[in-house]
UniProtKB/TrEMBL annotation:
It comes from Streptomyces atrovirens. This is Bifunctional SulP family inorganic anion transporter/carbonic anhydrase. Residues 10-19, 551-560 have a biased composition (Basic and acidic residues). Residues 576-589 have a biased composition (Low complexity). InterPro entries: Carbonic_anhydrase (IPR001765), Carbonic_anhydrase_sf (IPR036874), SLC26A/SulP_dom (IPR011547), SLC26A/SulP_fam (IPR001902), STAS_dom_sf (IPR036513).
């Protein structure tokens, strides 16, 4: 197995110490150091895992000890070997239905053997390095599978909540529900309702007492509270029964038909792997959203498969349930502040201690309370957020079919149905292409919505032949794919139309730029060499990399043919000449430029963003961060942060200054924006972004203390603390990683970002949110000439701006 572990992943968890040949031998192995955050996080995860592990074992019909075995093995083995340091593995609710079916069909010992074989399969997949391929499964199928499992769990556990016994399938459970309702067990129902009430209300306790009490997991409070009430009231209920570990059943040889066992192993491998890999990706997102995320490395998904496989082999061999990454425990681990895999492993050790020493206490827990807990988990697996997401992406059919298939047929069958429907939907979208033709102000517009394949060629030809000879035509392609047949049809028609005196402009509506084809078959150049409205990448000085730049794109005329009145013989991207009939072209006024920009937005961009903006208009703005930067026109916040409508709450001022609280009047606008963003919008981060060549910093360097008191000079007084900080020899200077600042202006730009962050921390709303852990501050420097962003970090007391590299350039 070790040969399959990537070398860098295997070496990352051990420290090699080299000793000179004549040095004395080391005194002994170094003591492992465990961070306090890992210790506290392990306790929090343990308190959640203990009742959930027992409840999941109860829901599957396995021995209750099997849940504890899986929790311990998942924490220790998967935690040590796996590639996601903060993901917590153990018995998962998503495996409940699969395991229950296996136990009913093959018995417990064979189910353990199937778990071992599934672990071996996961080891093989990890060695083949196919983990990323598992993430190619449509999210609608994954969410539908989890929703179907959640419905199955909830319906089955409802019978135990009501004081009865669940049936073997969802239809049978639904048919038996009326009779179960007619024969309620009051004691079991009351304990279950109390458990659900505590589970629901505990996280909602308001005020400062609530923040303190919420540190105790709701699952533990719900089960412990219901157990205490049941014991105090003397209720007679079925309770947890943990027989002696000497009687614990271990794995046996698999018994049953080969094809059936193979299908069982495949199903277990599929569910365990997909849930664990998706969980690892989700954990990475959670970690990246909290302060100090750089301490935790990103998940190695292939290594995670190896860790999960090893854990399933050990768990199955010891008579435990199948193991997978568990979302509830993993999110609790991240939120509790864990910084390494030690927290996951310690939680497994605590489960072992509890299983050995706390058996008398565990046997007080009513089964109805555990059933209510697991039923709540099952209901939560049917996520309204997921339903809204798949609806927005028009994949609700795939989600619904997968869910119904899992509920009525089983997990493997439901997933297979979902995949089939997803393929059908993809083919339907590929063949469903809308082609329209309309005339507007003498220009004919042919709009193609969807993928342009050979199946759409007849409709494309009909639309193109509606265009009269010699007419001006705009062909808008709103799709991401065009096959060879469609390309040939469009190219042949364009050549014929332009040869007869017409003009053709082919645009991609998704980006608002002209389509450029490789090699000689460029849409921009017909065979006769005449200049058309289209263009190729080679002819365009500004490659079509952003729609906002396209309206300023100019291209040289063939052969560098300068025209009178033009400065360089260029033609504008809108098809107009740089000069008209030998007369000097008048300079374009701001009004014309504004009108042209708005017109381009309405034509190219508005149709693409209208739906998203309509949603934001209904729901209101909920930005994730406040971005405070300079008014410099070269700093495009949406471009350098890859953000869109509703993502950023932006404040811009000269010099990206943050006046400290209590400053003189006239500066309340920045403080008001900060207070509104933190208090009303609940942004999670604030970024102060400086940039190279800042004119405000140049002016600040040249400001005389008693100079003219103009509005600009009065505003720049808030930058004087940055000047003093730069000149303070007792403070280490801010610097860029890998090089020194080029001049005093760049040094002041860096120092100013650090100083404005200090001003931010002095604002009451910011300080309060940071104390509660709800807000983090970031410093950023954007070098305009290099198009390079730098993020502020602290190293050994120094403020260092690190270059942000793209993934393909990172070493």
């Amino acid at each position: 197995m070790s040969a399959c572990v990537p070398a860098r992943a295997a070496d990352s968890d051990r420290t090699e110490r080299a000793h000179p040949p004549h040095s004395p031998p080391p005194a002994g192995p170094p003591r492992p150091r465990i961070a306090g955050a890992d210790l506290s996080a392990s306790v929090a995860v343990f308190l959640i895992a203990l009742p959930l592990s027992l409840g999941i074992a109860l829901a599957t019909g396995a021995p209750l000890q099997a849940g504890l075995v899986a929790a311990a093995v998942g924490g220790i083995v998967a935690g040590r070997i796996g590639g996601s340091p903060l993901q917590v593995s153990g018995p998962a609710a998503g495996l409940t239905v699969v395991t229950a079916d296996l136990i009913q069909q093959y018995g417990w010992r064979t189910t353990c053997a199937i778990t071992v074989l599934a672990g071996i399969s996961q080891l093989g997949l990890g060695c083949l390095r196919v983990a990323r391929g598992a993430l190619a499964v449509s999210p609608a199928i994954v969410h539908g599978m989890l929703a179907g499992i959640g419905v199955t769990i909830a319906v089955a556990q409802l019978h135990i909540v009501l004081g009865g016994t669940p049936q073997s399938s969802v239809p049978d459970n639904l048919l038996a529900l009326p009779a179960q309702l007619a024969n309620l067990h009051p004691a079991a129902l009351s304990v279950s309702l109390l458990t659900l009430a505590l589970l629901l209300l505990w996280p909602r306790i308001p005020g400062r007492p609530g923040r303190v009490l919420r540190t105790v997991p709701a699952a533990l409070v719900a089960v412990a509270g219901a157990t205490a009430v049941a014991a105090a009231a003397g209720l007679v209920l079925p309770k947890v029964d943990l027989p002696s570990w000497r009687n614990h059943a271990l794995t046996g040889l698999p018994e049953g038909p080969v094809l059936g066992l193979a299908a069982a192993v495949l199903t277990t491998t599929l569910v365990c792997s997909v849930q664990s890999l998706l969980g690892a990706v989700a954990v990475d997102k959670l970690v990246s959203g909290r302060p100090g995320s750089s301490q935790v490395g990103r998940s190695d998904l292939d290594r995670e498969l190896l860790g999960q496989g090893a854990a399933n082999i050990v768990s199955g061999s010891l008579g435990g349930l199948p193991v997978a990454g568990v979302a509830v425990r993993s999110s609790a681990n991240v939120k509790a502040g864990a910084v390494s895999r030690n927290s996951t492993m310690l939680h497994g050790v605590l489960v072992v201690i509890a299983a050995l020493l706390m058996v008398p206490l565990l046997e007080f827990i009513p089964l109805a309370s555990l059933a209510a807990l697991v039923m709540a988990v099952g209901i939560q697996m049917v996520s309204l957020h997921h339903i809204r997401t798949v609806t927005r992406h028009r994949e609700v059919l795939v989600y619904a079919v997968t869910t119904l298939g899992v509920v009525s047929l089983g997990v493997l069958e439901g997933v297979a149905l979902g995949i089939a429907v997803a393929v059908g939907v993809a083919l339907h979208r590929l063949t469903r292409t809308r082609i329209t033709h309309e005339e507007e102000e003498g220009v004919h517009h042919v709009h193609v919505r969807g993928q342009l394949t050979f199946l759409a060629v007849p409709r494309l030809s009909r639309a193109l032949h509606l265009v009269p000879q010699g007419a001006d035509v705009v062909v808008a392609l709103d799709g991401s794919f065009m096959d060879h047949a469609a390309y040939e049809t469009l190219q042949d028609w364009q050549s014929t139309h332009t040869a007869r005196g017409g003009t053709v402009e082919i645009t991609g509506r998704r980006t608002g730029v002209r389509i450029a084809e490789p090699a000689a078959l460029s849409f921009g150049h017909p065979p006769d060499g005449s200049e058309e409205a289209g263009t190729s990448d080679a002819d365009c000085r500004c490659r079509p990399w952003t729609a906002w730049r396209n309206h300023q794109c100019e291209r040289p005329r063939p052969g560098g043919d300068p025209r009178p009145g033009g400065t360089d013989g260029t033609e504008r991207a809108d098809g107009t000449d740089g000069a008209a009939e030998g007369a000097p072209e008048p300079a374009e006024t701001g009004g014309h430029e504004l009108r042209r920009g708005i017109s381009a937005f309405q034509r190219n961009t508005a149709p693409l963003v209208r739906g998203e903006l309509a949603r934001l208009a209904r729901e209101g703005q909920r930005p994730g961060q406040l971005f405070l930067t300079c008014t410099d026109s070269r700093v495009i916040t949406s471009m350098i942060t890859s953000s869109g409508p509703g993502d950023l709450f932006v404040v811009r001022n000269v010099g990206n200054l943050v006046p400290p609280p209590g400053a003189e009047s006239g500066d309340d606008s920045v403080a008001a924006a900060i207070e509104y963003a933190v208090e009303m919008l609940a942004v999670r981060s604030i970024t102060v972004c400086g940039h190279s060549g800042c004119s405000a910093m140049q002016a600040l360097l040249g400001t005389e203390p008693d100079g003219a008191r103009t509005p600009l000079r009065r505003w720049l007084r808030h930058g004087r603390p940055s000047l003093r900080r730069m000149g303070d020899g007792s403070l280490p200077p801010s610097r860029l990683a890998g090089r020194t600042p080029t001049d005093a202006v760049e040094q002041l730009c860096l120092t100013n970002v650090v100083q404005q962050l200090e001003h931010l921390r002095a604002h009451e709303s910011v300080a309060r949110a940071m104390k509660d852990g709800a807000l983090e501050l970031h410093g950023m420097y954007f070098h305009v000439g290099e198009a390079q962003a730098y993020l502020l970090t602290e190293r050994d007391g120094e403020k260092v701006f690190d270059r942000v590299r793209s993934p393909d350039l990172a070493m």
